[in-house]
Design goal:
By secondary structure, the chain is of the alpha+beta class. Helix content is about 60%, strand content about 10%. It is elongated.
Length: about 300
């Protein structure tokens, strides 16, 4: 009876932790999507600037629909959000097949939320910030922080992120960053033919600031090595089962106590630090850990959202 009760308590604690994690991830997705829409609609679009990637493609399609096809659109409403969702539909299927059901569902919901915000957040008739450089910096920081929060919540804004993650799964030498660069080159090459060069230059400045803001917030980008010193067994197995990360073990001996200890090494992202601490402390509260951020990793290390 005691063992059964202890097991039930442990299961409840795990479910509560999972529930809290899902709520936090949902908050990141909603809040981040709103911030992105505010940065783009209130600051960037009124100046006629363009995003890179699939959002930029959606904006170019919107320009074609409104300016060439002369489709009537209510004042203050941007079609980019709707078009962005539509061009992401085949990518959802790709993500489902390669990256799994959970990722595809979360991305579908996040892109849906983002598209709604891009439609409902009104576009000012007069730019809120008239200076282009200032607008690029402020808009890039707001939109980039929003995108970073979405990624921190282990979701994705769709578009080239899905393509990049799928490619990196199949081909380790291809990264999300490389795909982003290629997509941005494609979009801004088109912009260079359609608009004056000032629009392209300021759009590039905005995209650069946005990317820098994403990297500041998206802590999954930061590689972290962990050295764990413990006298108890079972930590390696728990880390492998709960995180899917590989662990290297060494047998050690305390120089002062002459007692056997175990040395574990694991490479993770900064986002996973809290999870590693929880796993280790649940088995050995006295374990000693060293975390080193910003490690360069060359080889078979899985980058995760």
């Amino acid at each position: 009876m005691f063992i059964q009760g202890e097991w039930d308590t442990e299961m409840v604690e795990k479910l509560d932790a999972k529930k809290k994690q899902l709520i936090m991830q949902a908050a990141y997705a909603v809040g981040g999507s709103l911030m992105f829409a505010l940065g783009v609609n209130l600051i960037i679009i009124p100046l006629g600037l363009y995003n890179g990637g699939f959002m930029g493609i959606a904006q170019l399609m919107r320009t074609f629909v409104v300016s060439v096809l002369h489709v009537p659109v209510p004042s203050g409403v941007d079609l980019s959000g709707i078009l962005y969702f539509i061009i992401n539909i085949p990518l959802f299927y790709m993500g489902l097949k390669i990256l799994g059901k959970e990722f595809a569902i979360k991305t579908f919901i996040t892109v849906g939320i983002q598209s709604v915000f891009l439609v409902v957040v009104p576009i000012p008739a007069v730019p809120l910030i008239e200076d282009y450089l200032t607008a690029c910096i402020i808009g890039g920081i707001i939109a980039g922080t929003g995108t970073g929060l979405v990624l921190r919540g282990r979701s994705s804004g769709g578009g080239q992120d899905i393509i990049g993650l799928c490619c990196s799964k199949k081909y380790p030498n291809i990264s999300v960053g490389k795909i982003n660069i290629l997509m941005n080159i494609f979009v801004y090459a088109i912009c260079l033919f359609l608009f004056n060069i000032e629009i392209v230059i300021y759009s590039l400045i905005y995209t650069t600031v946005l990317a820098m803001a994403i990297d500041r917030v998206h802590i999954q980008n930061i590689n972290t090595s962990v050295m764990i010193f413990t006298k108890k067994m079972g930590i390696s197995r728990a880390i492998i089962e709960q995180t899917g990360r590989g662990v290297t073990n060494w047998d050690g001996e305390g120089a002062y106590t002459n007692k056997t200890s175990y040395i574990l090494f694991v490479m993770i992202s900064k986002y996973e630090v809290g999870q590693i601490k929880q796993i280790v402390h649940s088995i050995d509260p006295n374990a000693f850990m060293i975390f080193t951020e910003g490690c360069h990793v060359d080889g078979n290390f899985e980058k995760r959202l």
